[in-house]
Specification:
single chain, about 250 residues, alpha/beta, Rossmann fold, nine-stranded mixed beta sheet, 9 strands, about 40% helix, about 25% strand
């Protein structure tokens, strides 16, 4: 990991940009973090829009978690997004999805698989490698939570990574059938956020995925409104969920 910039905010939160094997990322740590008092870590999964595009959203969440709850947070760029090299396979799958939606055609399982599964296969090992390095830094000691991003990435990561102690997932993307099998292996506490009137993602699929999770403790937060209409109070709801399970 190579840190490329550092910025300290008035509330004591430190933001550091880094690269890890060519993958850009950002780490936020609270003023309380130290080698003698390491803090829990939340991995914030970004949408596939580029970290520069969604920086304000991610930084707002991370700084809130740090200043109000004493958590560190980190994010990394998804494969094929932002400044990372273009990924022809992913670009073709997105183009096929746009054509199907524009033509009013159903989005079948084969298209969903082509769009999501290759991303999951690449992104999850990158998150695990990042976690290895982040937990070795002074001031960060776990436990570890995961939130947001593409829900299929979060499900697979929670299923295979034993260091994930809790996950807050956003039901706002298409889900391949294989991810339902992963969901049955997820046993950590879960909080799933669903926008009831999401224009692009079928509500029933999100409900079926929630039902498939093997966790003994799982909570569904459903709010009226479209994909981008998440109520502001869900930020604190997510923070309190992590406070229960990471402290």
């Amino acid at each position: 990991m190579q840190f490329t910039s550092e910025r300290r905010f008035d509330d004591g939160v430190v933001e550091r940009e880094f690269t890890l094997d060519g993958i850009p990322g950002i780490l936020w740590t609270p003023a309380s973090a130290s080698a003698s008092a390491p803090v829990p870590l939340i991995l914030i999964g970004p949408p596939p829009l580029g970290l520069g595009t969604v920086y304000a959203r991610l930084a707002g969440r991370a700084r809130y978690y740090a200043a109000e709850y004493g958590f560190a947070s980190a994010t990394i760029e998804l494969p094929g997004s932002g400044d990372r090299p273009r990924w022809a396979e992913a670009d073709r799958a997105r183009a096929d999805l746009r054509r199907a939606v524009a033509a009013g055609e159903p989005v079948g399982g084969e298209l969903v698989d082509a769009l999501v599964l290759p991303l999951v296969e690449r992104a999850v090992p990158e998150w695990r490698a990042a976690l290895d390095v982040l937990l070795a830094l002074p001031g960060i000691g776990g436990p570890v939570g995961y939130e947001g991003g593409i829900i299929s990435v979060g499900v697979r990561l929670a299923a295979v990574e034993p260091r994930i102690a809790a996950a807050a997932l956003f039901a706002g993307s298409l889900v391949p059938a294989a991810i339902f099998e992963d969901a049955r292996r997820v046993t950590v506490p879960l909080q799933v956020l669903l926008q009831w009137d999401d224009e692009a993602n079928p509500r029933q699929a999100a409900l079926d995925l929630f039902d498939a999770f093997g966790s003994a403790e799982k909570t569904l937060h459903a709010n009226t409104g479209g994909h981008t209409g998440v109520p502001a109070h869900e930020l604190d709801a997510g923070a309190r969920f992590f406070a229960r399970h990471l402290k």
